[in-house]
Design brief:
Elements lengths: L2 H10 L4 H70 L8 H10 L1 H6 L3 E6 L4 E5 L14 H9 L3 E2 L3 E2 L7 E10 L5 E10 L3 H8 L2 E2 L3 E7 L4 E3 L17 H7 L4 E6 L5 E8 L5 E8 H4 L1 H43 L20 H36 L3 E5 L5 E4 L3 H4 L4 H4 L13 H12 L6 E7 L5 E12 L5 E11 L1 H14 L10 H18 L2 E9 L2 H8 L1 H16 L7 E6 L2 E9 L2 H15 L3 E3 L2 E3 L3 E8 L6 H17 L4 E4 L4 H18 L5 E10 L5 E12 L3 E3 L1 H11 L2 H21 L7 E4 L2 H5 L3 H12 L6 E6 H5 L2 H14 L2 E7 L6 H4 L6 E4 L1 H5 L5 H16 L3 E4 L5 H9 L4 E2 L10 H8 L23
Length: 953
């Protein structure tokens, strides 16, 4: 049945005139309540506003009185000040002179209604008006107002006090200091004033507010100085803490509030301070008098409101009876119809008019629209059925327990099961056992009306293979939005996506070059191996395998050959391990081998030896037979408690130990190996602060001319004076600076310091010899090298031809086109270029003529074997001849004996450098050496016998 049928059934019930009567009563009551609410609200609002007006008027009255009092007090002080200004020192030399002055100053006496006094600066009475016998010479300095005037030399208004003549009058005294022309206070002029004087407070005391309201004045200590009841003068207005509002007024409150007077009546009381004194003016207006007119007006308004309500309610009653009559007739007309199961019949007849006719027409339109919506609903259901039947997604409905109550036809193509074969079965019957818990939890979440879950699981096909489903579950709602007990599931076949995800997963964990596991997969396998070790109590080992001198293969044969070699190495290593082991490529030419489930660490050493043997077999790559070796570091976790990072770090340390032994071996990690690593880390950390702490310094080694025997140049060599390690040689910290990038800053410091030092020495008499500075490979590859050199030359003012930059062979051959371009830019600055350690690198002589070089430095390894090896002598002789042919200057490094020096001089070497002449020296020692009297350091070696000690002193 439709909801409208219930409306018609309700209309069938007899109503008659009772409906109109009830309606009239309800409307009347509601209207009466509304009028009373609005009326009373307005009355209270009016009462509050009127009360605020009265409070404002009373506050204004008190403020006006306080202002008038303030003006009077200020005027009296001004009058007293004018009179004091007229008093001279002659007027106060004697009592008679003072009396004459007071008697002649009638204006002052006229303003002060009681007495005028003239005291000395010490408070001794000199004169008074009116004159009284036997009072001259009295010491009145004890009186508070005189004491304060003497102390402060300022005017004082005394606290009011009762007179001592018994007339119950309050008196106030004003004082004014009298000053001589030089600023000394010579007298005090005072005047007394009766506060009950009508001109002062007398009229205020007679002021009446309303019928019984009054004014009073108190001092800050709470004593009354003006009150209608004169018997209360000089008494406290309220006992301490007896009246909270009064206590607040004494502390500074000003304004009007409701409170209780001293005689217990409620009243509006206002307080206002007189600024020029310590007085407080108060006004008291009994509350019953203040609000009497308001109460009378309110009651008159209430009477009028009640009469108006009675009239309005009567009018509403009559009007409602008249208006409801057609509706009653229409209700009786509805009662003649019966509800049908098929359709709602429209209303007939033409009774009523206006709203009643509009109601009948609206009802008929409603029944017509309901029929139209019913037809549209049926059509929509057919459309949805069409979508469901043709959707590629499987749509099912489930009961809260997971029973399938509906399945779309596509189930036949996705699962090979017709919809009828699914209905009545539990969804979990078709789910892979491993995914059962996922599906069960999702059904519970959906049934509890939580956020719609989306799950991925496997569903069984009729031919027993599994299909990957992505299913969204949602609790269905009714047309009115209420939740039902049905769960809608929309499932999509995501098998192709899962295959792609699996492929991407494998790609992300596989090295693309060797197809071996990469770091990500190694981490996963490590976690599995760690869990196995904890479960079984077995060991977990990790090996770091690094191919020795692999860079040489890349540099000489190319990266393509290197990549193919890495593939073959991976295959060879894989053949040496167990099925449970994991071989991963770590990066570059490094491989990591994970060995889980070991019972003894010796197994790891056996596998390492097997790998080393396998790698010794020549690898044929693109026609090249490559012989390689490897360095292997082994780290074993004894109790499976070490993390992957620690285990790998230990293996890496052991691998470098193997490298240090020459490679082609394996080393088992020991705890003491960490000490060297920690020492290196400590040195690396300290090196970062070496520059700012000024720990770096330069030593200088002289270069001796082979032709003249005199000083021909100097090489600047860096040293590090560490506070703990002492003097650190460059061989220890320069590689660290290269790796960390600090070499750029250090190299710039060396060049700048050397240029600055040489300029200083030139100024102190040193011959203008050149200085040599070494450039590292990192510095040379830096894009702003030329800019840096030019900046240092400009900043220090050093002559470019006197600066020689030393480069190594391997550095020049790294990137020949770029090297040539950089050398050309450096040469354009005017500096000279030296090729250092010649013969130890590529020895590609054909390239030498392509570089803009100035000097060739023969490596010390060749010089050390002179006169002991004919082959070595021939190499040095050929090198010197080559340099001459290329017009290059030659420098021999490491000259330590006279025999070596004799040979080099005879072969035509230009410059000699070595311990034979001097070791690298501190700056001051070098300067002393260079400026010494003996300047010829090669005395007739070609004919004389060598000295016994073999060193020139």
């Amino acid at each position: 049945m439709y909801p409208t049928h219930e409306l018609i059934q309700w209309l069938h019930r007899p109503r008659g005139a009772a409906l109109a009567t009830k309606t009239s009563i309800v409307i009347s009551i509601l209207f009466l309540v509304a009028i009373l609410t609005v009326g009373l609200s307005s009355l209270y609002s009016f009462r509050a506003k009127l009360t605020n007006v009265m409070i404002a008027e009373q506050t204004t009255l008190v403020e006006r009185i306080a202002d008038n009092l303030d003006q009077k007090l200020l005027a009296l002080q001004k009058t007293l000040a004018l009179s004091a200004a007229e008093v001279t020192e002659a007027d106060v030399t004697s009592s008679d002179a003072a009396q004459v002055y007071l008697d002649t100053n009638t204006g002052l006496y006229a303003n002060l209604d009681r007495s005028v006094f003239l005291f000395s600066a010490e408070g001794i009475l000199l004169a008074e008006r009116p004159f009284k016998l036997n009072r001259r010479g009295d010491n009145a300095s004890w009186r508070p107002y005189l004491r304060d005037t003497i102390r402060t030399k300022l005017p004082v208004i005394s606290e009011p006090f009762l007179t001592n003549v018994g007339d119950s009058n309050m008196v106030m005294v004003l004082t004014m200091p009298v000053f001589a022309k030089d600023g000394r206070m010579i007298a005090i002029l005072t005047g007394s004033l009766g506060l009950t004087n009508p001109g002062m407070l007398g009229n205020i005391a007679k002021t009446v507010i309303g019928k019984t309201g009054y004014l009073f004045i108190v001092t800050t200590d709470g004593k009354l100085i003006m009150h209608p009841d004169r018997m209360r003068l000089s008494q406290e207005a309220f006992a301490p803490h007896a009246n909270a509002l009064f206590d607040r007024a004494l502390r500074g409150f000003e304004g009007t509030e409701e409170t209780v007077t001293w005689d217990g009546r409620e009243a509006l009381v206002s307080y206002k301070r007189v600024p020029s004194s310590s007085w407080i003016v108060a006004a008291v207006y009994p509350k019953n008098e203040a609000l009497l007119a308001v109460h009378d007006l309110i009651w008159r308004f209430v009477d009028l409101l009640l009469v108006a309500c009675i009239v309005v309610v009567a009018a509403i009653w009559i009007l409602t009876q008249y208006l409801m009559r057609p509706l009653v007739l229409l209700t009786q007309h509805f009662a003649t119809y019966k509800a049908t199961d098929a359709q709602i019949a429209p209303l007939t007849g033409d009774s009523g008019s206006g709203e009643i006719r509009a109601l009948r027409s609206a009802f008929n339109r409603l029944t017509s629209r309901l029929r139209e919506r019913e037809d549209a609903l049926i059509e929509t259901m057919h459309k949805y059925q069409l979508i469901t039947d043709n959707s590629s997604d499987l749509i099912t409905k489930l009961a809260p327990d997971g029973t399938i109550t509906y399945a779309s036809p596509v189930s036949a193509s996705i699962l090979g099961i017709a919809p009828a074969g699914l209905v009545g079965h539990f969804l979990c019957e078709f789910v892979h056992p491993d995914d059962f818990e996922i599906v069960r939890t999702a059904i519970q979440d959906a049934a509890s009306a939580e956020a719609p879950p989306r799950i991925i699981y496997r569903a069984r096909h009729v031919d027993q293979h599994y299909v990957w489903f992505e299913t969204t579950l949602r609790l269905m709602t009714s047309a009115d939005g209420e939740a039902t007990q049905k769960i809608l599931c929309v499932s999509r076949d995501v098998g192709d996506r899962k295959l792609m995800e699996e492929r991407l997963h494998n790609l992300a964990r596989t090295d693309h070059l060797t197809a071996l596991p990469n770091r990500f997969l190694l981490d996963e396998r490590f976690a599995i191996g760690l869990a196995q070790g904890r479960r079984e109590g077995s060991l977990l080992a990790m090996m770091m395998i690094d191919i020795d001198r692999f860079k040489n293969i890349n540099d000489t044969l190319g990266h393509g050959i290197g990549d193919e070699l890495l593939k073959l190495v991976g295959s060879a290593l894989k053949s040496c391990i167990r099925d449970c082991d994991t071989l991963a490529r770590w990066g570059g030419d490094e491989f990591v081998l994970l060995l889980p489930g070991l019972q003894d660490s010796s197994v790891a050493e056996l596998i390492a030896d097997r790998c080393l043997i396998a790698l010794k077999t020549p690898f044929i790559v693109d026609g090249h037979s490559l012989h390689i070796t490897a360095s292997v570091g082994i780290s074993v976790s004894p109790d499976s408690s070490e993390g992957a990072e620690v285990l790998l770090q230990n293996a890496d340390i052991a691998m470098y130990k193997a490298k240090a032994r020459g490679g082609d071996c394996s080393v088992m990690y020991r705890a003491d190996m960490n000490e060297g690593a920690r020492s290196r880390m400590s040195m690396e950390s300290a090196l970062f602060h070496a520059l700012e702490r000024e720990e770096l310094l330069l030593h200088y080694q002289p270069l001796i001319s082979a032709k003249t025997g005199r000083l021909a140049g100097v090489e600047a060599l860096i040293r590090w004076q560490h506070p703990e390690y002492g003097l650190v040689p460059p061989g220890q910290f320069i590689p660290i600076a290269e790796e960390t990038g600090l070499i750029d800053a250090i190299g710039a410091w060396v060049m700048r310091t050397a240029c600055t030092q040489m300029n200083n020495w030139y100024a102190r008499g040193l011959a203008r010899i050149p200085v040599s500075v070494n450039l590292s490979s990192r510095q040379f590859r830096h894009d702003d090298l030329v800019t840096m050199v030019k900046s240092i030359l400009d900043d220090t003012g050093f002559e470019p031809p006197l600066l020689e930059l030393e480069l190594t062979e391997s550095l020049l051959m790294d990137d020949i086109p770029k090297t040539k371009a950089t050398l050309a830019k450096l040469k354009s600055l005017g500096v000279t270029i030296a090729l250092d350690d010649f013969g130890t690198g590529y020895s590609s002589l054909s390239y030498l003529k392509g570089f803009q070089l100035d000097t060739l430095k023969i490596d010390r390894s060749f010089i050390a074997e002179l006169a002991t090896s004919d082959a070595n002598d021939s190499i040095v002789r050929a090198t010197i001849g080559l340099a001459k042919g290329l017009r290059l200057k030659t420098v021999a490094e490491g000259v330590e004996t006279r025999e070596q020096a004799n040979f080099l001089v005879k072969q035509g070497c230009d410059v000699l450098q070595g311990f034979l002449f001097a070791r690298p020296m501190e700056p001051q020692a070098f300067l002393s050496f260079a400026l010494a009297s003996h300047t010829y350091l090669l005395p007739r070696w070609t004919t004389d016998e060598p000295e016994k000690n073999g060193v020139i002193q």
